[in-house]
C-alpha cells in the first residue's frame, strides 16, 4: 500500500518504508509511504491447496458467507513472519479463538478478514507518520472482486472503499507513464479523466463493534510473536 506524501520524503517512525512514488519529466519527484503485507491472497490459496477447504480460490467468499460473522476466530497469517508495521521475523501463523462452535465457514471468514485487519494496521501507521486522515481507500488487484472482503474492509476502517473499473493499477500506471513519455497523452489531467469508479462500499458496522473486533485482532497478533527463537 502506498500513500502519496508529495515532493518531500517523510521518514517513517511507525514501521513503514519511505519510497519514491514517481517522477514525470522535469517535474519534481513525488514520494510515498509504503507498507507491505506478506500474506493476503496467498492465504486463500493455502486454504485451497493445504487444507482443501475449497476447490477454487473464488469459492472462499461463498464458504465465508455460510456464517454471519467470524465466530470469535482470528487468523494471523504470519507464515514467514510479519511485515509492516511490525517487522517480526520471529512470528508464525496462528488461528485463535477456536471453540467447538467454530467451523470451516468461520475459518474462511477469518482468513478474509485477516487481509482487512492487516490493511488497517498499515494505514494507521501511515496516518501517524503523515498526519493525513484517511477519507477513502482505493483498492486494486485480484482480491478486490471479493465483495465480502471489500465490505468488511470498509467497515473495519470506517471509511468508503472504492474499486476502479480497471483493477490492475500497477500495470496501468506503467502504461500511462510510457504514454506520457511518447506523447500519447498530453498531461496528467488526461489520465485523471480516464479513471472511473466500478463500485463503492460504505462502512456498515457500529463503532463499538469495530473497536471490539480490532481489539481482539491485536490480541491475536501478539499471540503470533516469539515462535522462532
In brief:
By secondary structure, the chain is α+β, with helices and mostly antiparallel strands.
Characterize the structure shown.
By secondary structure, the protein is of the alpha+beta class. The protein contains 7 helices and 8 strands, in the order βββααββαβαβααβα. It has helices at residues 41-49, 60-64, 104-130, 147-157, 169-182, 188-194, 207-224, and strands spanning 2-6, 17-22, 30-34, 74-76, 94-96, 137-138, 161-164, 197-201. It has a 3-stranded antiparallel beta sheet. A 3-stranded mixed beta sheet has the order 6-7-8.
Please indicate the percent range of residues in DSSP E strands (runs of 2 or more): 5-15%
- Span of the ends, CA to CA: 30 Å
Order of helices and strands: EEEHHEEHEHEHHEH
- Report the biggest beta sheet as strand number plus sense, adding barrel if it closes: 3 strands, antiparallel
Gross morphology is globular
Which residues form runs of ≥5 with pLDDT under 50?
none
What's the total number of strands? 8
Instruction: Bin the helical content.
Output: 25-40%
Strand order of the largest sheet: 1-3-2
Ordered list of secondary-structure elements with their pairings:
Elements: E1 2-6, E2 17-22, E3 30-34, H1 41-49, H2 60-64, E4 74-76, E5 94-96, H3 104-130, E6 137-138, H4 147-157, E7 161-164, H5 169-182, H6 188-194, E8 197-201, H7 207-224
Helix pairs in contact: 1-3, 3-4
Amino acid at each position: 500500500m502506498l500513500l502519496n506524501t508529495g515532493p518531500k520524503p517523510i521518514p517513517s517512525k511507525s514501521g513503514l518504508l519511505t519510497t519514491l512514488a514517481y517522477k514525470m519529466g522535469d517535474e519534481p519527484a513525488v514520494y510515498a509511504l509504503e507498507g507491505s503485507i506478506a500474506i493476503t491472497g496467498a492465504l486463500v490459496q493455502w486454504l485451497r491447496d493445504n487444507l482443501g477447504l475449497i476447490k477454487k480460490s473464488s469459492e472462499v467468499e461463498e464458504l465465508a458467507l455460510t456464517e454471519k460473522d467470524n465466530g470469535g476466530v482470528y487468523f494471523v497469517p504470519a507464515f514467514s513472519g510479519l511485515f509492516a508495521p511490525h517487522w517480526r521475523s520471529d512470528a508464525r501463523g496462528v488461528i485463535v479463538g477456536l471453540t467447538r462452535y467454530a467451523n470451516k465457514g468461520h475459518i474462511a471468514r477469518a482468513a478474509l478478514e485477516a487481509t482487512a485487519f492487516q490493511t488497517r494496521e498499515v494505514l494507521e501507521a501511515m496516518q501517524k507518520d503523515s498526519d493525513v486522515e484517511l477519507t477513502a481507500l482505493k483498492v486494486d488487484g485480484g482480491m478486490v472482486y471479493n465483495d465480502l472482503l471489500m465490505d468488511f474492509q470498509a467497515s473495519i476502517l470506517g471509511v468508503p472503499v472504492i474499486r476502479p473499473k480497471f483493477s490492475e493499477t500497477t500495470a496501468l500506471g506503467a502504461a500511462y507513464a510510457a504514454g506520457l513519455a511518447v506523447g500519447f497523452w498530453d498531461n496528467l489531467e488526461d489520465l485523471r479523466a480516464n479513471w472511473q469508479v466500478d463500485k463503492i462500499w460504505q462502512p456498515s458496522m457500529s463503532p463499538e463493534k469495530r473497536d471490539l473486533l480490532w481489539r481482539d485482532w491485536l490480541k491475536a497478533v501478539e499471540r503470533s510473536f516469539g515462535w522462532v527463537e
